[in-house]
Amino acid sequence: MKDFMMIFIGADYQELGLSPEQLQERMGKWFAWNEKMQKQGIVKAGDALVPNVKRVSGPNRTVTDAPLIEGKELIGGYYIVQAENADAVVKIAGDYPDYDLDGTVEIREVMVFDQQ
Amino acid sequence: MEHKVVDHLFRHHYGKMVAILIRFFGLSHIETIEDAVQDTFIKATSQWRTQIPDNPEAWLNRVAKNRTIDILRSIQAEKNRNLAINTGASSLQIDELFLDHEVADSQLRMIFVACHPSLNPSEQIAFALKTISGFSIKEIAAALLTKEETISKRLTRAKKTIIERDIQFQYPNPEAIHNRMERVMKVIYLTFNEGFHSTNQDKLIKEDLCGEAIRLCQLLLKKEQFRSGSLYVLFALLCFHMSRLESKISSNNQLVNLKNQNRTKWYFPLIKMGNSAMHKAMDYDDSSVYH
């Protein structure tokens, strides 16, 4: 078993101006997905991220508030799950609720350092 | 432990929280309050992913209240002047306002604000759907078959009028109730009609509009001072129509006339409710277009 991170990009609810009804529907889908993964016992970690972004960059450690990031590029949250391989995670990611809002899931394997 | 969130909780709770917070902070802060309530739901969608709180409504109330105070404080700080955040209802603690009867009371006040004579009818219905029934601009546009931009404009105009004319968050005077109730009933009737006759393919929006109209009617009927033969008859009319919402559309989305409808699909409890409202209407002398 390996660890994989699913990174959720785009589909910023705040920007999309969803109605309370639609938000509740989304919430229900996330809840159901989380519950399904919990039952399978594959979730190691996961969080939703606050949309405020600060960036530190360059040798001068320049700090920028980055509301300039477009909603569709914003990382909204992540899960770390255990799976056999990336294809299995692709399958898990099939239940991500926000594809219809142009959301994207990026799947990355967590690197394991060799123990000497 | 498994928790279920009640159907439409967010949408119904939107209207409740907006009404209560307006009662506490004042109608002039309506924009801020609507934003705060919307923020609250967005917060819930991330925080309730892993666990739904034991008492979802209390969670929403608390977060919305704090968010409103936060926004108002930051506005105050920006303006650097003493803004009396607490306008009106100061003798009541805000938490008490979240009690059921106070919620109903605040929502009723909201209905009368929405139907205030200084708003024009198209603004009234858009405003009512947004602030009382928690529909988004997109949903209202879809329901009324209008452009989103038009709805935005109507809402902005309505809010501007409310602030400019300093409309109060109150019931109308007893002598004005009769006239105002006529407007209120008209808005309810129109809301229902939009849902019932709409060619909109979205079945959910239709049902929600009709359901909202019936809910508002029920809310008004709970208060003695608003009851009348007309209101009971309107309620009966909506119940009777609603009972056959299912059967009036065939499987290929064609209208089925009354004669050919499958009567076994009519929803009997609503017919009974309508019937009893009809009987109650007989106790009043007034008559109306809904009779």
From TrEMBL, chain A:
Tell me where the transmembrane regions lie: none
* InterPro entries noted in UniProt: Dimeric_a/b-barrel (IPR011008), YCII (IPR005545)
Which domain of life, per UniProt?
Bacteria
Specify the YCII-related domain's residue ranges.
10-113
**Which Pfam families does this chain map to?**
YCII
The UniProt similarity line reads: Belongs to the YciI family.
- For this entry, the protein name equals YCII-related domain-containing protein
Q: Give the species.
A: Maribacter caenipelagi
